[in-house]
Amino acid sequence: MASNDNGISKTKSPSRYMLGGLIRHPLSITLATILTVVSILLVTIPTVIVGLAVDELEVGGLSTQFVNYVWLIVGLGLLYMAMYFVVGYIWAVVTLSWERDARQDFFEDLQDYSMTFHDEVDSKRLLSVAMQDISWVRFSLNPALRNILGGFASIIITGVLLSIIDQTPGLIVLFVIPFINVPVGIFTSIILVGTPIYLLYAYKYANAVEPVRRQRSEVMENLTSRTQGVFQGIEVVRAFGKEEHEQAKFGEVSKQYEKRVAREGQLAAFYLPALILTAMTTIAFFYGGYSVWTGIITKGTLIQILGLLVALEMLNFQLPHMLLMMRGGFVNAQRIVDILSWKEPMIEPEEEVAEINWLGDIEFNHISFKYNTTNGNNDHYALKDLNIKIPGGYRVALIGGPGGGKSTVLKMLLRLYDPTEGEVRIGDVNLRDVRTSTVRDNVGLVEQDIFLFRMTVHDNIAFGRPDATREQVEEAAKRAQAHEFIVELEDGYDAMIGERGMTLSGGQRQRLAIARALIQDPKILLLDDSVSAVDAQTEFLMRKALDEVMVGRTSITVTQRLRTLIESDLVIMLDKGRLIDAGCHDDLLRESELYRRIFERLPGAKALLAGVAIKGGAQ
Amino acid sequence: MGMRHGPRGMFGGKDKRSRPIRVLLGRMFGYLGRFKRIVTIGAILSLVATIVSVFDPLILSIGIDLVADGNSTFNTLLMLIGLYILIKVTAWILFGVNTWILAGAQAGFVQNVQEDVYNHLVEADLSYHKSEQSGNVTSRVTTDAVSLGTGVQVIISFSSQILMIISSFLLLWFAAPALALTSLVVIPGVAFVAVLFGTVGQRIMLASQRAAGKVSGQIAENLSGIHIAKAFNREKELAEEMLELNQQSYKHGFRFMILMSAMQPLVRSIGQFATAAVLFVAGALAVGTLPVLTIGQVFLGVILVGRFMWPLLMVVMSFAQVQASMAAMDRVSDVLESTPSIADSELAISLAEESDGISFEDVTFSYVKDTPVLKNVDFSIAPGEMVAVVGHTGAGKTTLAALVNRFYDPDSGRILIGTQDLRETTLDSLHNTVSLIPQEPYLFDDTIFENIRYGRPGASDEEIIELCKIIGANEFIEVLAEGYETIIFESGKNLSAGQRQMITIARTMLADPKILILDEATSRLDAYSESLVQDAQEKLFANRTTIVIAHRLTTIANASRVFVFDHGDLIEEGTHEELLALNGTFKSLYDTYYAHQGFEELTEEAAETAKEVVKDDTKDAVPAGPGMMGGHGGMGGMGGLGGMMGMGGPPDPEKMKEMIKNMSPEQRKQMLAHKDMLPPPIRELLEKLESGEES
Fold it and tell me: What does DSSP say about strands A578-583 and B386-390: parallel, antiparallel, or unpaired?
C-alpha cells in the first residue's frame, strides 16, 4: 500500500475495525450472548435429564416421572429452537447491517480520496476488498464468532454441570498437602485443565494456518490478474507467438497455488485439540467408571458425565473451521484498514477565500510536481519549474510529448492534485485556499476517454447539474449538437446508456460530454479533445459544439485538431515536464522547430511552411 | 483508448446445465483418475476410519453396563479404557492421514483442471475471446476450477458422512433394532429442512447473489468513473445510489442469513426430539421382567441418534455445493470440448528466412456462412512495401489483418508469405515473422521493462533502454515514479495514450518482425505527441513489409500504395495522388474522413457531402473505425535526409551505427548541417564519428 508521510489519515486497528459493528450495538449483543448461554443450557441439560431418567428407570420403571423427563426434553428442545432463532436473528441484524455500512463507508472513503490514491491503486483490488474482504470480515463475526461464543458457552456450561456432579458425596478427592486438605473435584478439574489446553492448541492451529492462507490468497490474486491480462491481450499473445511461453508461466503459478492449497488442507489433518478432548473423555470415563464400580455414583450419573463430554466432542466438527474463519477475517480486516489508513495529501482549507474571479488570469508559479512512489525516493518530476500565465477568457491549446505533463496541468486546475512545489493561482487566489468542491463547480472537464454512467441520456447530461430540468438538458444538448442524434435513439433522452457508454460512437459520446459541461456552466473549461477519427459531418458538428462551449470562458484544450491550434489565442507546448514554447500559431510556426514538425507530414505542408519565414533548416 | 477494461462485477455465469450430471461426474472422476492410487488409498482409509470411529460409543456403553454389574474387575475397566483410547487414537490418525492425502490430491486436481482449461483457452479461437468478457473467461480458470475442487471435497466428505450414517445405523440395528427404527423419526424432520433449503433457500440465495452482484457492478463502475464524479462534484449523489443498492443487498442477504440461522436450531431440536423418542422407547424396552435392553444400550441409542444429526445436516447442505460445482464442470467442459479450428497441420514447415511480401490469391472469407466479409480479394505486396488500407466500417479491413496473422483461415483462395501458403507453415514461425499491433495498445499488468521485453524474451535491460532512447520513449519512462520498473495496471491507466502507444512500438521493435500489420489505434494523441509517435513509427516501419489500416491522413499520404476496400471488395489501388485523380470511391472517402484532419477550414458543404456518403454506406454515423494513432509517415517531410534515415532499417543501434559509418563524408556533412532535426542518439553518433572518437 502506497502512502506518504505528510498527510492526514484515520487509522484504526484491524481488531477494532472487526468488532466495530458489535461495539455499536452493545445491548443487542449482550442480549444475544445471554440468550446464547441460555439456549446452549437448554440443549445441554437434556444429557443430564437422560441420566436422571435412566436412574428413574432403574428405580421406578416406566413411571410418570420418567415420562415427564421425556416430555421435558421435548419441551426444552422447542424452547431452544425459539430462543436460538432469536439469537440468530439478532446476530443477522447486527452483523449484516455492519457489513452494509462498512461497505458503504468504504466506498465513500474511496470516493473522497484524491486522485493521487486512485492513480496509485488498482481498482480491481479495491473492488475485491470492497466486496470480498468485507464479506470475509462479516463471516468472521457471523457465523464464526457467533459459533465460537456458542462453543465457549458449551464448555462453560458443561464445566458447571460437571462441578455440580462433583458435589455427589464421596466423589471429591482430598489432596493432602502438608497441613491443608485441598478438596478437588475430578470432573471439574478435567474441564478446568483440559479447556485451556484445548483452546491453546486450537489457537495455535488457527495461527499456523494464517500465513498459509495469506500466501494462498496472494498467489490466487496473482494467478487471476495474470490470467485476465493474458485473455484481455490475447491478440498480443498470439501476435508475438507467445502461447507456449504463457502456458509455461501459468503452469508455474498454478503449481505454486497447488502447493499452498495442499499445505492449507494438510494443516487441517491431525487436528491436535481433538485428542485433548479424547483425553478428557477418557479420564472421565476412567474415574466415572471407577466410581460406579465402587458404588459412589449411579449409572445415570456416569451417563450424564459421558454424555456431556461426548457432546462436547461435537465441537470438533465446527470449531476448527470457525477459528480459521475468524483468524482469516483478521487478515482481511488488516487489508481493509491498510487502505483506509491511506494518508490524504490533499488538505482542504479551513476557511476559503470568498470572492474569486474565476475569469481572471490563470498563473502557474514555479510549479513542480512528482508522483508518489512506494519507496518514497522518486526524484523524477512530472512537471519541473513550470511558469505560465494564461489571460482570462483566452482560448488556449495545450500540446506536448507523451508524458510531457499536459494531463497533470489539467488535473491541477481541477485540484485533483496539488503541486509538490509552487502554486496555481486563479484570479490571484492560490487554489490551495479554495475547497475542492468550489474549484470543481467552476472548472469543467471534457475528458479524452469519455466516461458515461449506466444511466439515461438525461441523467448523464444532468450529471453536470443535478437539478436541471428536461428543458435545460435539451437546451444543452442542442448547443452541443447532440439533440439530433439523441431524439433518434429509441427512448430519446430516457435511453439507457450501455455499459461504459459503448453503444454510442466516439463523436456522440464527446458531444454528450460537451452537453454535460455546458449545463454545468463552468468559468474555466478543460478539454481533452483527442478523440477518435470521425467523418467530416461528425467533425463539423463537434467543431460547432466546441466553439459553442468555449464562448465566455477561459478554455484549455489538449488537441489533435490542427484547426484548433490555428484558431487558439495561445498555444502552449510542454515536453518532459517543462515549457518548451508558447505563443500563437503564426509566431510558433515561424519560431519553433518543434512546432513545425507537427505540420511536416501533411499533404501541402511544404506550401504552408514555405509561406512563413523560417529560421532553421527545413527546405 | 476508446475504453479501458475496468473491473467488472464478480458474480454471474450461466446457471443452467447443458450436460447430464452423469457425464459431468464422469469427467470429474476422470480427472481424479490421474490420482488413482492416492484417491483409492484415501477412500480405504476413510472407510476404515469411519468404521473404527463408530465403535467408540459402543465401548462406552459396554463400560457402563460392565462397571455396574458388580462382577467385573478393575482390570476390565482398564481394558475398556485402553480399547477406547486405541480406537480414538487410531481413528484420529486414520482421518488425519486421509485428510493429508486427499488435500494433496484435491489441490493437484484443481491444478490439473486449471492448466488444461488455461491451455485450451490460450489456443481457443479468437472469436471465442471476442465474444466473451475477459473476466468471464478468467473465471473459467479461477472460480470454476476452485469450485470444482470444492465439489470434489464435498463429494468425498459426502461419502464419508453417508458411511458414518449407515454404519451408525447398523450398529444401532445390531444393538437394538427397535432403537434403530425409532431413530428414523428424524427423517421427516431432516427431509423438511432439506426441501426448505432446496427450494426457498436456493431462491433466496440466488436473489441475494444477484443483489450483491449489483453492488459489485456499481462499485466497479463508480471506481472507473471516479474522475468524472470528482470533476462534477457528484460524489454525494453516487453514494446515495450506492446506499440504495447496498440496502437491497442487505435485505436479501438478511433473508438468507435468517434461513441459515434457523437451520442450526431446527436441526438441533429435531435431534433433541429424537433423543426424547429414543429415550422413551429404550426406557420401555429396558424395564419390566424381561428387559430387552441394558442401560448401556439406552445410552448407546441416545448417543448414536445425536451422531446422526450432523452428518445428515452436512449431506443436505452439500447438495447445493455439488450443484454449483456441477454447473462449473459444465462451463469448464464447454471450454475443454471446443477444438481450435486453427492449428498446425501435420505437414507444416517453418516459414523460410527469405520469405517476405504478402500475396492474397482469390481470398474469400466469412465469419457467418454466406455473408462474406472479403470477396475474391487478390493482391500482392512486395517485400519492404508499405500499403495503407482504407474503407468504411465493415469493409473488411480488420479481417484482412486477422487473416495475415492467421487468426482465421480463408474459406477459399490462399494467402502467401513469399511463396509459402500460411496453412502450410507453423504458427510459431509465422508469428515470429509477422507482428500485429492491434487497434488498442494493450499492455500487461507488469513492469514497463517486462512489457517491452515481451517482444523478445532475453533482451537485456540495457538493450531496452537503448531502444527507448532511439524512439524517444526513454525520457517519459524515466520520469515515471519507478522508471522502467513502474508496474502498469488496468492496461495502463497510469499512463497516457501516447505513452501506451510508445511502449507498444518499443515492444514490436524489439521483436523486430519482418512483416508488420498495424491497425491504427483508437485514440488520437495531441498534435505534438502525434508527431513524436510518427517519428518513432517511421523507424519501426523502415524497410519492412507493412500493412496499415489507416485512419490518419498522413498515413495515407505517405504510403507507397493505398488499397480501397468496399463491402469486402478491393475496388481501387494506387498512390494517394493517383487515387484522388480517379475521383472515385477513394475521393469520397478522403473527403469524408481524411481531408479535415489537415489544416484547411472544414466547410458546412463538405460536412453535408460527408453526411450523404456516410448515410449511403453505413446505417448510422459510426466513425470509420474508432480512432487513430499517429499514422505512419513516409519520409516526405525530411527530404533527402529522411530517405537516408529510412535506409537505416530496424533501429537496432548497431545497425544504425553501421549505416552511419558506411556513409560518405559528404553525406555525413549534409546530415550534420541539419543536425537539429535529427533525433539525439543519431546526432550524438554522428558527432562522435566526426570528432574521430570512433572509426
Answer: unpaired
Rounded mean pLDDT of A82-96? Answer: 92
If one counts the domains in chain A, the total is 3
Of all residues in chain B, what percent carry a pLDDT higher than 90? 14
Q: Is residue A483 part of a domain?
A: yes
Highest mean pLDDT, choosing among A210-224, B71-85, B232-246: B232-246
Residues 6+ apart with CB under 8 A from A578: A383, A384, A385, A386, A405
Query: Residue B637: which pLDDT band, with cuts at 50, 70 and 90?
Result: very low
pLDDT over threshold 50, residue A460: yes
Nearest to B676 among A53, A243, A616 (CB): A616
Q: Same domain, yes or no, for A172 and A188?
A: yes
Contact call for A124 and B7, based on CB within 8 A: yes
| DSSP-derived 3-state class of residue A115 | helix
Judge if A104 and A178 occupy the same domain: yes
Task: Note whether B238 contacts A123, CB cutoff 8 Å.
Answer: no
Most B CBs within 10 A among A89, A97, A127, A417, hence the mutation to make, goes to A127
Instruction: Please report the residues numbered 475 through 534 in chain A whose beta carbons come closer than 8 angstroms to any beta carbon of chain B.
Output: 485, 499-500, 502, 505-508, 516, 520, 530-534
> Can you give the residue range of the structural domain that contains A134?
14-207+277-340
Stretch (H or E) spanning B372: strand B372-381
Residue A530 lies in a domain: yes
User: Does one domain contain both A321 and A445?
Assistant: no
For residue A230 the three cell numbers come to 493474458
Contact A158, A348 (CB under 8 A): no
From A340, A359, A374, the end of a domain falls on: A340
Chain A contact set for B265 (CB, 8 A): 39, 80-85, 88
Mean pLDDT for the stretch of residues A494-504: 65
Burial of A84 by CB count in 10 Å (0-12 exposed, 13-18 middle, 19+ buried)? buried
Binned at pLDDT 50, 70 and 90, residue B234 comes out as confident
- Let me know if residue A6 belongs to a domain: no
- The pLDDT confidence band at residue B682, using thresholds 50, 70 and 90, is low
Same domain, A291 and A159: yes
Tell me: ipTM over 0.95: no
- Asked, for residue A554, whether it belongs to a domain, the answer is yes
Best-predicted range by mean pLDDT (A121-130, B380-389, B394-403): B380-389
Return the pLDDT at B476.
Answer: 82
A180 touches chain B (CB under 8 A): no
SS (H, E, C) B629-677: CCCCCCCHHHHHHHHHHHHCCCCCHHHHHHHHHCCCHHHHHHHHHCHHH
B310 → closest Cβ in A84, A112, A317:
A317
Closest to A233 in 3D by CA, of B521, B5, B536, B338 = B5
CATH number at residue A464: 3.40.50.300
**Residue B586: in which H helix or E strand, if any?**
helix B585-589
Closest CA to B546 of B427, B409, B383: B383
